Each structure stands twice: as structure tokens, then as C-alpha cells.
Amino acid sequence: MSNNKNTEANVEMTSEELSEVLQVRRDKLANLQEMGRDPFKESRYDRTHYSVQVKEGFEALEGETVKIAGRMMSKRIQGKAGFIDIQDAEGRIQSYVRKDRLGDEEYTIFKTYDIGDIVGIEGEVFITKRGEISVKADKVTLLSKSLQILPEKYHGLKDQELRYRQRYVDLIVNPEVKDAFITRTKALKALRSYLDERGFLEVETPILNTIAGGANARPFITHHNTLHIPMYLRIANELYLKRLIVGGFDKVYEMGRMFRNEGMDMKHNPEYTAIELYQAYADFTDMMEIAENLIAHMAEVATGSTKVVYQGKEIDFKPPWKRMTMIECVKEYSGVDFNEINTDEEAIAIAKEKGIEVKPGMRRGEIIAEFFEEFGEDKLVQPTFITHHPVEISPLSKRNNEDPRLTDRFEAFANGWELANAFSELNDPIDQKGRFMDQLRKKELGDDEACDMDEDFLNALEVGLPPTGGLGIGIDRVIMLLTDSTSIRDVLLFPTMKPIEKQEESAE
Asked: Where are the domains of the chain?
């Protein structure tokens, strides 16, 4: 099969034609193996330079011999010479391959190589008449044979679902996709260094738990065969980290995957990355300072500025961020002042009047939260702290001294999304037990996201938790904003996808 041009994936193929092309590739592999040139027996290649190093260092490297390696992305053969483009982890570079430099046999074998094959090129750095820095090949080594056909950049792999499923192909065909993940890595390094430099200790806590606690969410449930007990993938690591504060650590954090068995949309994936940090002898105002400075630092290190443009909107993470209580926000955007509504009955009445769904057992605090979600949340485009959440929706937060119906808690929002949640930690074991009991009441009313009772955590509080501030940040949403990504799947290398067989069954 001729590979004179990169046209393999530019045209529509019938399944029969596709099968034929794939078989040709396998036949080529078999021929190479019969010749004793099995590419899969190549164990290593002594690459000396990446493509970018050759291009940026051309003045020093011109005329020198280098060894590059990567995937062949295009191939243009004209008789006794041809050009190929090699793509490595840092970019692309052209190689000029001539029959008189390789020799008749090697050049004949080279012409059988396909788009997608991984090759090593050894040769001289030069610049073509058209001004393109290239490598004049003295030796071409096939390092791995591609048995599949790559989509061509502009005509292939446009199906977003397929791009998420076959991220490895997406990264090859659309190398700019890497940029978001490089930005992600820079931001996470900045996050860790910021906390490490301020005396926080990174720790690890269990992912498999016997109790689903630390947040209001539906857990994934599994079974431990030896212990014969149900276990839960963690929905949060909060309760373990607070145990460490009880044990004498003053500043701890953990970043890792959390798991919630809930809906999937552009902001939600069943497994996602979050960080939680805790500081003894601090409160939620200290956590505000950490949150705004930490996220601003991530933005500046990863993108070069505290200002990012997300879908045409400029968002500036530079501190200090705006602060509003939840009741103030509700009043501003709905016109309802819950400072003047003091009973559950009054709250239920105004909720019905404003078209808010009232669920069985709902109380004033829960209705305030519903008002905020309905009228206020999406208005918070610039970074904003919403503070003083009702006790009913804050089972682990310390009560506010001036109004015990509220808590010393905040959530941070930007682009209408919740990015962070923090509070002065509840360290009164008697109050905490009452909150857990209230969560059990909600569970009995059908709330499958309510917390379970954690007796060991209550015991830890009875041992004594110092005044403590805690903060959790949803990493993926922050990265979405830093990379102008419209879906959480764009910042997860391998997002959760429904198996293809299941999709086909659903369609039927």
C-alpha cells in the first residue's frame, strides 16, 4: 500500500475498505518479522534531542548529528527522497529522507512505514531551501508499528465522546489538548508549594471507609469479602484530617480523588480531585485568606496572571475577594429578607410564593439555601465569598456566636460555580452528636445524601479538638477556569464514560 501522502484518514472508508487497510498493516508487520526486523523487539532508543531543542538550538546544532524519536504524522515521498514529520512530547520536526543516504534496502523498507508508526531518526541538522529546520536522516529505525489508522487532524476525531474515550488518540491528533493538562500540573505544583512553604504537612488518609461521612453526598458502596462488611469510597476526607488535628498536628492537607455516586454533567464527574486542609487555632476568616491567596497563586503560576478569560468573561482572582452573607445575597437577588422571616412556617409560605419546591420536613435554614441556589448562585461571576450558612445545611460547622441559627462557614464562588467550602470546625462533641442525629432524621425522610453517625469521630471530639479552620477546594473546577474549558471532562485525562455496549443497549 502506497503512503505517498497523508491521506489515509482524510476520506470516508467503508468497513470493508477499513478492514483491508488494517490487514495491510498487519501484513507489513509480518513481513518485517520474517526479515528479522520485528519493531516490537526494540527495547530502547538513545534519543539525544527533542524537536523543540533542535529548533531552538539550531545555530549551535547546524551540521551536527542528533537522534530524535517520535510518531510519524505525515509522509511525502517523491521518488528517491521524501519528507516526514515526527511528533514527540514537545512538538514536531521535519526529517528529510534520501535513498542515497539510507541505501537501497533501507529506503525500500522505509517507504513501507505508515502514518502513526513510531520511529527513531539519526542524522544531520540542517535548514531546507524553504527555511524549515529539519534532520537529514542517515538512519531510520522503526521502534513500534501502528496497526490502527490515526484520524487526520481536521477531518477526524471531532466526536467529543470519542475524544474522551480514546484520549491517547486525542492527544496524538490534537496535541494542543496537552496544554490544559500541563497547566493543571503547574497549578497543582503551585498549590503544594504554597502550603508546604507555610508549614502544612501533606498526609494520606483512607479511600475505603466503613462510614460514608464528611459531606452530604451519595456514596459508592462495595463489599469487603474478608470482613463481610459494606465499605464506601470516600466522599470526603474531612473527618480523618480533623482526627489528625486532635492527635497533635497543627497544619495538614490532603489532595486526591473523591467519589460521589451522583449525576454527571459539565461540572460533575463521579470521581474528581479535591484538596482539604486544616489548621489548628484558626477560624473560617483565616481560611478565606488562604483560599483567595492560594487560588490567585495557582492562577498566576499556571497562566502568568491572576486574570483569566473564561468563555469571553474576564475573571480576576486577585485578593481581596468580595464578601456577602448568604442572607444578604438572597435579599439582593430575590428581594426576600430572611432576617425578617424567623419561623419555618413563614419560610415555607414565602418559598411557595416564589415557586421554590418545599420538600417534607424542610425548615427555614434549608429554604434559605434553596433561595440562594435559585436566585443568587449564578450571579456570582467574580470571586465571591458567601458566608454564614444556616445550621441545617452545615452539620460540621461551628455556630455563629451572634446568631446560633447560622454558622461560621463560607463557600467561594466564581463564574457562578462553587469552588471552595470552609468553616470554623465544630469542636463541641455534644452539639456535633445533635447534628448527626439531625442527619439521621433527614435520612429517614428519604435524603440518601445525609451523613451517617460516626461514633469514633465523636470520641475524637470528646478527646478534644482545638479551635480549627478547615478548607476544601474543588480542583477540577479551578482548572476549568484557568484553561477556559467548558467541561470537567476537558481537564480529566480519563473521565468516566458509559461503556459502549451499555450505550447501544440504551439506544435499543
From this structure: 15-153, 177-245+270-507
